[in-house]
Specification:
- With 166 residues, this protein is α/β, with parallel strands linked by helices.
- It has one domain: Rossmann fold.
- The protein is built from 5 helices and 4 strands; from the N terminus they run βαβααββαα.
- The chain has a 4-stranded parallel beta sheet with strand order 2-1-3-4.
- It is globular.
């Protein structure tokens, strides 16, 4: 891998919370080396308001945020993805989309903060915890020496990041 900008797609089912948060964090942390995108296999049609509020509190412009289908990135003329990360929670029997092709992939599953029931404070806490976990993982990812890792070693490192063993 070279010093070019690497395209990264975060996939989830609804593309309303986790994948949008990950896209925002990567675009902040990637400092021009990475460009983040997000999509869903069954998009909800709109970003979760709690995700948008959290991003705004973090000083991140939410103008980019929209819930969209992964079909948009499989179409002719779409950006070629170098990495595809699923962030759905397969442990909760949530359907995780699969991305065909040759990008480097990893599963970074997290519980869906939008599924949390309870008070507004409990819901906000779930979003904050998800944001912190994604930030840790993405910071570890952007720190990887991509140019010196072969595909197998990179895959192993990405798996470790997804298991919070980075």
């Amino acid at each position: 891998m070279t010093d070019r900008v690497h395209n990264v797609l975060f996939l989830c089912t609804g593309n309303s919370a986790r994948s949008i948060l990950a896209e925002a964090v990567l675009n902040r942390e990637g400092a021009g080396r990475f460009r983040g995108f997000s999509a869903g296999s069954r998009p909800t049609g709109a970003p979760n308001p709690l995700a948008l509020a959290l991003l705004q509190r973090e000083g991140i412009d939410t103008g980019f945020a929209r819930s969209k289908s992964w079909d948009e990135f499989a179409a002719a003329g779409a950006p070629k993805m170098d990495f595809v990360f699923t962030v759905c929670d397969s442990a909760a029997a949530e359907e995780c989309p699969y991305w065909p092709g040759k990008p480097t992939t990893a599963h970074w599953g997290l519980p869906d903060p939008a599924a949390v029931e309870g008070s507004d404070a409990e819901k906000a806490l779930a979003f904050a915890e998800t944001f912190r976990a994604l930030t840790r993982r993405i910071q570890a990812f952007v720190a990887l020496p991509l140019a010196s890792l072969d595909r197998l070693a990179l895959g192993s490192r990405l798996k470790d990041i997804g298991e919070d063993r980075a």
